[in-house]
Amino acid sequence: PDRILLDDILQSYSTMGFQASNVALAIEQIKAMRKWRLSDVPHQPNFEDESLKPLSVRETIRARIFFSYTSNQISCGQREIIRYLVQNKMVDVIVTTAGGIEEDLMKCFEHTYMGDFKLPGKELRKKGINRIGNLLVPNKNYCKFEDWMTPLIEKMHDEQDKAHKKWAKEVASTQEGETDLPERFVWTPSKVIERLGIEINDESSVLYWAAKNKIPIFCPALTDGSVGDMLYFHSYKRRGFILDINEDIRRINDLAVQS
């Protein structure tokens, strides 16, 4: 008998009805995004630079694809699919939640296990186990992540302070009235996330491949989770670590405007 290919099954979804047809529409939309080139639309002199006018240039510029997901997609097996997309540069910008960052890193240290939605959270907690839906995460996973992350926060704080001292000296040496001042370095969520991807150095990680392929990951609520707890405790040992959300707003908006 003839073999049935996955492409054939997916193509049949369009006439299958119910949610299958919506999946087919999503597939077609993704194909269109990946196929699109700036040459598909005429040059707009009122909005586009003259350098974008030649057809040969327009044919090389593709759509900038923004990819967003919530933390449960990383907690479950979807992480490997997302990692594949990032590893193969099939997306350009990522937006996720705090759990989408933390769970990816935690899985580099320890496994997440299958459980059941009906397992009582109270009893699991007494045994040092956390339930995410029907997934089980032992306390040691969080502990290992904290042991890895805490000294890294200290290191980033050192780098920030060193950069600020250099900046202060440069500002002090400028002439009075000079407006072109040197830029001051601050950590932003996307800069921190890129650093985490570099430091984890694990090919199973989404963050690792994003850092390697220079794909920015934005997480406005990076402090809404375990990382936030660690930054909170760090602030009592040493004040002054800056995490600038505003710079990331400008960065992601610029990426959108220039898409």
Brief account:
With 259 residues, this protein is mainly α.
Descriptive account of the structure:
By secondary structure, this protein is mostly helical. Helices cover 53% and strands 8% of the residues. The chain has twelve helices and six strands. It has helices at residues 6-12, 18-35, 55-58, 72-75, 78-87, 98-106, 121-126, 139-172, 189-200, 206-212, 226-237, 245-257; strands at 66-69, 93-96, 113-114, 129-132, 135-138, 217-218. The strands form two sheets. It has a three-stranded parallel sheet with strand order 1-2-6. Strands 3-5-4 form a three-stranded antiparallel sheet. A hairpin with a 2-residue loop joins strand 4 (129-132) and strand 5 (135-138). Helix 8 (139-172) crosses helix 11 (226-237) and helix 9 (189-200) crosses helix 10 (206-212). The radius of gyration is 23 Å and the shape is flat. The protein starts with 5 loop residues before the first helix and ends with a helix.
